[in-house]
């Protein structure tokens, strides 16, 4: 089986004016969304990046997709299916390899850009397989330690950079969860920038500007 057969359904924007292999941004959308959501950012991102927006494998009713199910009627409140999340973690890790092969992009300059559930998964992939990821832009998410690969603390994170942000009045994922991200990553000696904005579960215009500025600095 060829590697690219592992590549999920996706949107793609090629890089422009790039000599050699282009850096790539791989987008992971949130629960109930699809590959078109974050891809709406593509036209505003630097042309030197190839952009791939993946569609999560689990179809929801009546519409949208998910990387793993969330059971909102659970007795303890929201309950994430960590087994499915780990399966998606492995799937995305393989998709990175497939993207590198199919689109001939720079395997040493891969940025994961996630929103909400896509951020949680981006962190899981980057911490479990830091050799595959250079940068993470994590919007409105947090780190779920239960879906990190066993033994991840012994990984080499020396080339990993993280920008993470959250809305201070997020009604979906409490900002208190997000505030744990920066100290968690810095404890692993990972370069991390954390920002908050006076919004709910979404991306403020200033937030978008700030993560683009950050990306230029670390690219």
Q: What's this model, at a glance?
A:
It contains six helices and eleven strands. With 219 residues, it is α/β, with parallel strands linked by helices. The chain has a seven-stranded mixed β-sheet, sandwiched between helices.
Note down, in words, how this protein is organized.
With 219 residues, the chain is an alpha/beta fold. The protein contains 6 helices and 11 strands. It has helices at 35-39, 82-103, 117-128, 175-178, 181-187, 205-218, and strands at 10-13, 24-28, 50-54, 58-59, 65-66, 70-71, 79-80, 110-115, 135-139, 161-167, 191-197. The chain has a 7-stranded mixed sheet, with helices on both faces. It has a two-stranded antiparallel sheet with strand order 4-5. A hairpin with a 7-residue loop joins strand 6 and strand 7. The N and C termini lie far apart (33 Å).
Radius of gyration: 16 Å
Q: Low-confidence parts lasting 5 or more residues at pLDDT below 50? A: 1-5
The protein's oligomeric status is: single chain
Mean pLDDT: 93
Beta-strand proportion: 15-25%
Produce the secondary structure layout.
Blueprint: E1 10-13, E2 24-28, H1 35-39, E3 50-54, E4 58-59, E5 65-66, E6 70-71, E7 79-80, H2 82-103, E8 110-115, H3 117-128, E9 135-139, E10 161-167, H4 175-178, H5 181-187, E11 191-197, H6 205-218
Helix pairs in contact: 2-3
């Amino acid at each position: 089986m060829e590697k690219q057969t592992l590549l999920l359904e996706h949107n793609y924007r090629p890089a422009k004016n790039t000599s050699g292999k282009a850096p790539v941004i791989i987008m992971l959308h949130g629960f109930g969304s699809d590959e078109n959501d974050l891809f709406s950012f593509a036209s505003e991102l630097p042309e030197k990046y190839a952009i791939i927006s993946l569609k999560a494998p689990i179809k929801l009713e009546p519409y949208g997709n998910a990387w793993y199910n969330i059971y909102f009627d659970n007795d303890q409140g929201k309950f994430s299916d960590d087994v499915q999340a780990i399966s998606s973690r492995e799937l995305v890790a393989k998709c990175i390899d497939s993207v590198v092969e199919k689109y001939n992009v720079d395997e040493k300059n891969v940025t994961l850009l996630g929103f909400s559930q896509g951020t949680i998964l981006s962190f899981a992939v980057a911490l479990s397989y830091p050799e595959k990821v250079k940068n993470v832009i994590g919007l409105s998410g947090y780190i779920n330690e239960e879906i990190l690969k066993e033994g991840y603390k012994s990984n080499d994170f020396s080339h990993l950079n993280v920008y993470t942000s959250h809305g201070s009045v997020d009604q979906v994922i409490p900002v208190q969860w997000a505030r744990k991200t920066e100290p968690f990553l810095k404890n692993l000696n990972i370069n991390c920038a954390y920002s908050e904005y006076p919004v709910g579960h979404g991306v403020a215009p200033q937030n978008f500007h700030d993560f683009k500025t950050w990306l230029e600095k670390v690219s």
